[in-house]
Specification:
This protein has 373 residues and is α/β, with parallel strands linked by helices. It has one domain: Rossmann fold (3-Layer(aba) Sandwich), CATH 3.40.50. The chain has a seven-stranded parallel beta sheet, sandwiched between helices. Strands 7, 9, 11 and 13 form a four-stranded mixed beta sheet that branches. The protein is globular. It starts with a strand and ends with a helix. The chain binds nicotinamide-adenine-dinucleotide and 2'deoxy-thymidine-5'-diphospho-alpha-D-glucose.
């Protein structure tokens, strides 16, 4: 079957990637969606059971660092678009193992870029109608409010403490953790491939996502699981770091809009205008889980356990996505309370998924699928 477009989505078995794959496979039956994923600990094909048999969907197990394999895939599938999400994504892990982050996030991105360039630049039509869309993070900008004086936060609002400063597309890079340093480096390679070779690239920086299928080493799914199992909730520092939270489906909608209508060589910030101190969002999670489990209000507050903050975390990460709203008409649809309600409900309804990922059982599921291809 001839498709209108052949799009590789890297990291499509992960949290955000699986939402992007699902949206594109369902919304664009004329596109061939090739999910290219190495299936690391966060890659889970059971996330995509509902679409795995669709005629416009193909899964390829591959490592983006394997340049020869990337070239082969680009040629074999006549790839004309890339949405690049594959990455090592967890800040805490990057502090323990920075090499893996440099390998996947930097060298992997370079290998994909080079494969795209060497495939596209020799075609008769060259780069026409091609697109390399790289998904980056707000953490490359560093953190705002690092000079905040100790001990004042508990009784005043985040705005009073940190002011109204936001990350804009023009904010200078200032990464702090090995994760954000690796993402910053990959962003520079993406832009360099546009400036040097003319590859039609786009980069977006998104804030903290949450929602179904997020691996429970991240705050929100970890805490939902721990509350359910009456385990401690490890709050870093005093829980005073501030993040801008975005429901994953809103990010996915933004990716769709930007992939189709974003300007080549441009950068867009994606955020929820939903900034929350960690401790405040943790209270919302506790309240919601307790209510949905039928526990009395405040029942699980005692699980909060303050632990040492990690070096490399900053105080406040907040995105200004006005440009995306003004130029492409995207805006977030959910506020945090509503998004948390949907997310908690999903994790409580999908306990089998949670148990599979924490036990590693999902790995045998995808081995079965992969062997049968
Ligand atoms: P995730 O860890 O859930 O998914 C990453 C996916 O990439 C997994 O399926 C994994 O198997 C795959 N992968 C890892 N190494 C690979 C390799 N070498 N080759 C091929 N596939 C590989 O991550 P996520 O939270 O879905 O994040 C996706 C992207 O979005 C990342 O680039 C991340 O930096 C970016 N991002 C995430 C957030 C967030 O809040 N989660 C916010 C902004 C940007
Ligand atoms: O800002 C975007 C980034 O958001 C993405 O680029 C990353 O890929 C994504 O993982 C996420 O990074 P964070 O480190 O912010 O996410 P996490 O959910 O791990 O942590 C959110 C905040 O909660 C952070 O300030 C650290 C804190 N935290 C986290 C965990 C796991 C805790 O207090 N306790 C915890 O156990």
């Amino acid at each position: 079957m001839d498709f209108q477009r052949n799009i590789v989505i890297t990291g499509g078995a992960g949290f955000i990637g699986s939402h992007v794959v699902r949206l594109f496979v369902n919304k664009y039956p004329d596109y061939h969606i090739i999910n290219l994923d190495k299936l690391t600990y966060t890659g889970n094909l059971t996330n995509l059971k509902d679409i795995e048999n669709k005629p416009n969907y193909t899964f390829v197990k591959a490592d983006i660092c394997d340049f020869e394999m990337m070239l082969k895939i680009f040629k074999q599938y006549h790839v004309d678009g890339v949405i690049h999400l594959a990455a090592e994504s967890h800040v805490d892990r990057s502090i323990r193992d920075p090499f893996t982050f440099a390998r996947t996030n930097v060298l992997g991105t370079l290998s994909l870029l080079q494969a795209a360039r060497l495939t596209w630049e020799y075609l008769p039509e060259g780069y026409e109608d091609k697109r390399f869309y790289h998904i980056s993070t707000d953490e490359v900008y560093g953190a705002l409010g690092l000079t905040y004086p100790e001990g004042k936060l508990s009784d005043i609002s985040a705005h009073e403490v940190y002011g109204d400063e936001f990350f804009k597309e023009t904010t200078k890079y200032n990464p702090h953790s090995p994760y954000s340093a690796s993402k910053a480096s990959s962003d520079h390679f993406v832009r360099a491939f546009h400036d040097t070779y003319g590859v039609p690239t786009i980069v977006t920086h998104c804030s903290n996502n949450y929602g179904p299928y997020q691996f429970p080493d991240k705050l929100i799914p970890l805490f939902i699981g721990n509350i359910r199992h009456r385990k401690p909730l490890p709050v870093y520092g005093k829980g005073e770091n501030v993040h801008d939270w975005l429901y994953v489906v809103d990010h996915t909608r933004a990716i769709d809009v930007i992939f189709h209508n974003g300007k080549v060589a441009d950068t867009y910030n994606i955020g929820g205008f939903n900034e929350w101190k960690n401790i405040d969002i943790i209270h919302v999670i506790i309240k919601t889980v307790d209510r949905l489990l039928g526990n009395p209000e405040g029942y699980s507050e005692e699980l909060i356990t303050y632990v040492m903050d990690h070096v490399g975390y900053g105080l406040r990460y907040v995105i200004d996505s006005t440009k995306l709203k003004n130029e492409l008409g995207w805006k977030p649809s959910l506020q945090v309370e509503e998004g948390i309600e949907k997310t908690v409900q999903w994790y409580l309804d999908n306990q089998e998924w949670m148990e599979n990922v924490t036990s590693g059982a999902y790995e045998s599921y995808y081995e079965g699928i992969y062997k049968s291809k």
